[in-house]
Input
Amino acid sequence: MEASETKIESATQQLVAADGFPLTATTFTAQTQGGAKAKGKILIAGATAVPQGFYRRFAEFAVEQGYAVMTLDYRGVGLSKPASLKGFEMNYLDWATLDLAAAVDAFADDTPLFLVGHSFGGHAFGLLPNHQKIARFYTFGSGAGWHGWMPKMEQVKVLFMWRVLGPLLTSWKGYLPWKMLGMGEDLPLDVYKQWKHWCQFPHYFFDDPAMPHVAEKFARINTPIIAANALDDLWAPPRSRDAFMQAYRNTEMQFIDIDPRVTGAMGHMGYFRSSAQPLWADVLTWFSSHKAS
Output
């Protein structure tokens, strides 16, 4: 079907995580005659502080190519946040173990289910209790978060945020007012604290002495993975990706370095802007080569 002929329908859906927390997701499907079945389903595991609406362009592109897509706001973000973030308690990893897991269960059926990650999404997959329901995983901009992997000027900015600005803002507001800085959605205090803590380690939470069980979870994954990072991604350059994604040590893994001289400037957020459509086409081509068992 030609993209111009595809009528896309989107519908808000309420999900409930295993602990009872209400979440808001959006499904994107093609309006077809005769109930034609999608060639596959794609769930998007978004980045920290990025609302699901940011991924709409990718979702619509995938629907035009014959897929059904679901996006999700994790608890405390976008349409899944409480009336006030002040005093809101959660574990950062709830986004994976409870929220993304609920979306997987809700969206999975007998159609191949694929996962597309962005930044935190590359972490979330390894923590999923139901990861076996995912046929293939393609992630953009996933890395270890440690400032030492970043270019020097970005290191200075990030350390200023962690050591000066973040503590001041969270003490004032009771959460991280990210939106005030034009950085994305505001973040719950617990997310900020854990994120800051793990970003002090070269291999993120794998280096945290209090998290010895995490490496085991990632080692259980045998789903094929592609991890693509742009050379101009200041927050997650390829070496940061390599430091984190090596934890998926028992699966077929491909690393792709995206050259901005070919694609145009990418940075950490460009993977899901309209100019990245050639990258999206590569994702769907890889998904389409999956052979269901």
Residues 159 and 274 are 31 Å apart (CA to CA). Strands lie at 8-16, 22-30, 40-45, 67-73, 113-118, 136-140, 225-230, 253-258.
